[in-house]
Give the backbone structure.
Amino acid sequence: MKGLGASPGIAIAKAYVKTARIKIEKMMAENSEAELAKLFQAIEKSKEQLDEIKKITESKIGVDEALIFEAHAMILEDPDLVDKIVDKIKTDGVCASWAVREAADELAQLFQDIEDDYIKERVLDLRDVSMRLIENILGLKGFDLSSVIEPAIIIAEELTPSDMSRISSDKVLGIITETGGATSHTAIMSRVMGLPAIVGAVGLLNAAKHDDVLIMNGGTGEFYINPEAEILQRFEDEKNLQQEQQQALQSYIGVKTSTADGIEISVGCNIGSPKDLEAVLKNDGEGIGLFRSEFLYMDRSAMPTEEEQFVAYKAAAEAMAGKPVIIRTLDIGGDKQLAYMNFPKEDNPFLGYRAIRYCLEEREIFRIQLRAMLRASAFGNIKIMLPMISGVDEVKEARLELQRSMGELDNRQLNYNKNIELGIMIETPSAAIISDKLAEEVDFFSIGTNDLTQYTLAVDRMNSKISHLYTPYHPAVLRLIKLVADNAKRAGIWIGMCGEAAQDELLVPIFVGMGLDELSVSPPQVLKIRKLINGLNKRDMEQHVKNIMKLSNAESIFEYIKT
């Protein structure tokens, strides 16, 4: 059978079927006030559980992945849901559990016909939260994957974020679900956990049952139920080969990243908080290419203080012991909304009031962050990076605020690096096109390929109807990257990349040929990318870049690189 490969890796184990959740029956309430009391008690208990799950997910999986539980807590406060539940209890006289189910189903119904993976995930979030609420109303314990005590591959119709947070990684060897796509929570969290996963396996639960032997390849989406000995042996051989390859990568720890013809290229890491530093050090990252500072502002009821931010940045600087730590200034807005910041409602927030635009409007908030970064620079190699730059004036205004922040620290007689480097992310087409002018104002560039691709191609990569058009192999995207690299070299500044394309094994050789000095990737990818670069000859890659620049579409470029 076959589904959609969501997270690479091979697993062989018995099936563990995630059973269906409880069935809710319609019952009339004897006392509506008592049912309302049950509801609000369950809401508070659910919030406490979500807070605990969020903390567990942060430590087990990662800060980014834990944010979904912050969104779940917000659903519990959504008047569209809560008011509808209350109305059903008061007006229809039903019990609280049935009212929750009906209200959630009605809201989900509004979105069920929308063919958009992002919206589908929001519906799954709503179902996850409503089921938690029902379980707490009824005093029941939910399905818990941490109870898996023998090695198993989990099979289910779907897995919620709550389910994923409870997985015991030493017992759960893989996941196969009937629903979901490449952008589903299951897929994303599985990749971060390094857990093989297949989604969209239609007919799975009709074909497999508890304790059936399964073999799966999370890269290809291929899986077999009670396979023949020949197939089982083939997968065993593939699994052993992958393990040998992973073990071989350990020999690259402590080795410089350098092409065969002696060009050194740094391979750093993207992180969201000091908690991620352990993974960076374990995988021998050559620095922090992107510290997403906005995560320090999340899961809070108020803005982090200068001191709180200073402590986090200082921890990163000291842990990296002189290696570069590039901190991106507050990149909030778009899909990262914070209630206490009171962002205006926008029709298109990704093109609106966000990132540097917010910081230059809220300058005191900006200077608090800049002062924290500057103070941390006394303890290591801190660099400051500005996101979502579209023109020279924004850089000049930001540098002015940096100088003002330096003056404020001088008045307080605090130490900092007076020659701290200031760089920008190149993630808008306008920034790429005028990168020659921007290079005169900054010390470095870092290309954010996720947004640069999205904005260049006018494609919302979360929209399943057009997501196939989103590709960094498009000649327009690659030409912009080369233009930026060429302008950086002419200006004598260094250039890196921190988007997802930086760890694309087919594109990395092309970026080397374009002259990038640094690639920033997720920590588990460092050694793989280092090995790849160390086997390249930059001069050969330069010729390939010239050939690629002559091609007219993404398909021909992909085929050229692949061969």
The mean pLDDT is 89. The first helix runs from residue 32 to 60.
